[in-house]
Amino acid sequence: MRVETPSVLLIYTGGTIGMIENPETGALENFNFDHLLKHVPELKRFNYRISSYQFDPPLDSSDMEPAYWAKLVKIINYNYDYFDGFVILHGTDTMAYTASALSFMLENLSKPVILTGSQLPIGTLRTDGKENLITAIEIAAAKNPDGTAIVPEVCIFFENHLMRGNRTTKINAENFNAFRSFNYPPLARVGIHIKYEPNLIRKPDPDKPLKPHYLFDTNVVILTLFPGIQEEIIHSLLHVPGLKAVVMKTFGSGNAPQKEWFIRELKEATDRGIIIVNITQCASGAVEMGRYETGMHLLEAGVISGYDSTPECAVTKLMFLLGHGLSNKDIRYKMNSCLIGEITKP
Fold it and tell me: Between 175 and 252, whose confidence is greater?
């Protein structure tokens, strides 16, 4: 019986991991795949079929936006039947946004899509990129005895933790443990062995075909509340032309000022059809709007709960739902629903 060689498509979008230091000039330059094999010769020992696709020119992740998310989905959709898994090399700054967006755009995904990157370029001596890349490729190719993927979802792998993409936030600009999934446990921990948590991993129907989505509407804003926030600022923000949705970062378990003007502005906005989603400013925990009187006032003003959603996920989910031209009622319902493991409902 012929055993098929595991196959992984490596997609390089840009970011620190792909930078190589030019020994003559000391300048950081973008990689190509031959460069990568030179700096990570261990890849040859995998005995995998590894192909690569490179954004040209490579993109600083600060410039990442929905058009590039759609490009990634196109690449994955076009190559879906030819590879066991996909590894996306991406800058760390917006990686959690991309991972969240892709989790919604790749409906019925039954293969791993693993995003990774590094804090130091892959050519430097103490780089974290080498280990992140090698392990991400191994996870992308990993299969159960029945041939199905062990991790058939969009994930971020960083510093020994495999995390659900739409649960993940960048928390550190200089340490190697740059990402954290505060409200959902890691799907795998990596030490001497890769220890998967099968009960935490989504189990899609492998017989359903991948359904790619490409539409986004970016008429969304994040509003972070703080003590002393001015009425004029709230008013002008809620009257931005074309605005369709607001992710409102409130205090604690979803609390906000009880000022009459504040509640009135929110009520008038939701009456105009603007969707306002309440998430907490805390890194960990969830919004419970029925817990305190302040939260009850928000409910009465038409604000909906984002539960324990990350800001990255709340924004990309809203953009995704708005882009598909759903009714206001449908969007509100889906924002309150767990579509792809992105929130925990009490």
Answer: 252
pLDDT digit string (tens) for 284-315? 999 988 777 777 889 999 999 999 999 999 99
Residues 232, 324, single domain; the answer is: yes
Residues in binding site:
61, 92-93
- Provide the residue range defining the domain that includes 18: 5-210
**Domain tally for the chain?**
2
| Active-site residue, from 5, 13, 92, 218 | 92
With tokens 């001596």, the residue in question is: 125
Q: From the candidates 16, 98, 127, 310, which is the catalytic residue?
A: 16
Among 166, 183, 210, residue at a domain's last position: 210
218 in active site? no
Distances from the Cα of 222 to the Cα of 176, 199, 235, 312, 315, angstroms: 28, 33, 14, 10, 8
**Is 343 inside any structural domain?**
no
* Distance, CA of 309 to CA of 287 (rounded, Å): 9
Global model pTM greater than 0.90: yes
138: domain CATH number is 3.40.50.1170
Residue pair 108/208 in contact (Cβ under 8 Å)? The answer is yes
127/229 same-domain check:
no
Please give the single-letter amino acid code of residue 97. Y
Residue 344 belongs to some domain of the structure: no
Using one digit for the tens of pLDDT, what is the confidence trace for 51-84? 889 888 888 889 999 999 999 999 999 999 999 9
Annotated binding site for substrate: 61, 92-93
- 190 and 231 housed in the same domain: no
Judgement on whether residues 86 and 203 belong to the same structural domain of the protein: yes
310 tagged catalytic: no
